[in-house]
Specification:
- The structure is a single chain.
- This protein has helices at 2-19, 45-63, 75-83, 94-103, 136-139, 152-165, 170-173, 183-192, 202-210, 241-253, 258-264, 278-292, and strands at 34-39, 66-71, 89-91, 106-112, 120-128, 143-146, 176-179, 197-201, 219-229, 232-236, 269-271.
- The protein has 293 residues and is an alpha/beta fold.
- A six-stranded mixed β-sheet has the order 2-1-3-10-4-11, with helices on both faces. A five-stranded mixed β-sheet has the order 7-6-8-5-9.
- α1 (2-19) packs across α10, α2 (45-63) crosses α10 (241-253) and α3 (75-83) runs parallel beside α4 (94-103).
């Protein structure tokens, strides 16, 4: 109870601080005139750029700096961009964040909430309704799509589920295994029949449903994972401390903007830290251990 109250008061203090006149200009001499915001391509670069706009708008308004949106064709492109200081902050998935924290000096500041205001989501494995594939046993010998090697729900989590819970090697269990490049691509591939089974997550499936690309009735959900920590927005650790705090406070204010939340298709953000993603690091270690057996 105390922990929850402390977090609530911390968020309120951050939001209040950056709403006070003139405070956003305190210590800004070391701030860059332009911030570059990267977005991993969960749905494809164009859709990711569209969802980045409310974040860019809020940051520009609160911080008084220009914000440019940067997208890449894969998750690794965003990690590399931060490692080379081509971007200052980025929306990552949990696994891609842990990679960026090691390789690109990334530091998580806020975590995405789902529409129930929970700080997490679930990985799912889907098949097409009417395909006759309603269980993993029936998925044997079919075509399967992961999302991206740096995806949490599209690669890391299903691999752990396969090895730990089902004792199967996907490369032997399925007829063909491929990478689709994005969650949106995986979902559409199952719907149109070019892939028979795919790993994705409940949030990205909901986003595809909301924009009318698919319907829940198009799919069977044959496996669901445990809760995964929500996607983080991370900054470069070497940015000025005052700027990092200002970015976090600005992002938390989005929670009060329903129009922005509708575009982002989430429940807002909560404060977070690097340690929140230690469970993802554990899953990465577990995947390696299971692969050796």
């Amino acid at each position: 109870m105390f922990s929850k109250l402390f977090k609530t008061l911390t968020v309120a203090a951050l939001v209040l601080a950056f709403a006070l006149p003139g405070l956003a200009n305190a210590g800004t001499k070391d701030w860059p005139k332009t911030l570059k915001l990267g977005f991993i391509p969960t749905e494809g670069a164009a859709d990711s750029a569209k969802r980045a706009k409310p974040i860019a708008k809020e940051l520009e308004r609160d911080l008084g700096v220009k914000v440019e949106i940067f997208t890449a064709s894969d998750y690794a492109g965003i990690i590399t961009a931060m490692a080379n200081k081509h971007i200052d902050l980025a929306y990552f998935g949990p696994k891609s964040y842990t990679e960026a924290s090691e390789k690109a000096n990334a530091e998580a500041v806020v975590m995405e909430l789902n529409k129930k205001k929970q700080p997490g989501y679930t990985g799912i494995i889907i098949t097409k309704k009417g395909s006759g594939i309603t269980s993993m046993d029936q998925a044997k010998g079919k075509t399967f799509a992961f999302t991206d090697p740096n995806s949490t729900s599209g690669y890391l989590v299903p691999n752990v589920m396969f090895a730990r819970d089902m004792q199967i090697d996907p490369n032997k269990f399925f007829k063909q295994v491929k990478f689709s490049g994005s969650h949106g691509a995986s979902i559409l591939a199952v719907k149109n029949g070019s892939v028979q089974v795919a790993a994705t997550n409940n949030i990205d499936l909901d986003r595809m449903i909301e924009k009318g690309a698919v319907s829940l009735d198009d799919f069977n959900i044959i496996k669901t994972s445990d809760m995964i920590p929500g996607a983080p927005i991370a900054v470069r650790k070497d940015l000025p401390e005052s700027l990092k705090v200002a970015i976090a406070g600005s992002l938390l204010k989005i929670n009060e903007d329903q129009k922005a939340l509708d575009i982002l298709q989430n429940g807002g953000y909560c404060h977070t830290s690097d340690s929140a993603y230690d469970i993802v690091r554990y899953l990465k270690r577990l995947k390696k251990q299971l692969a050796k057996k």
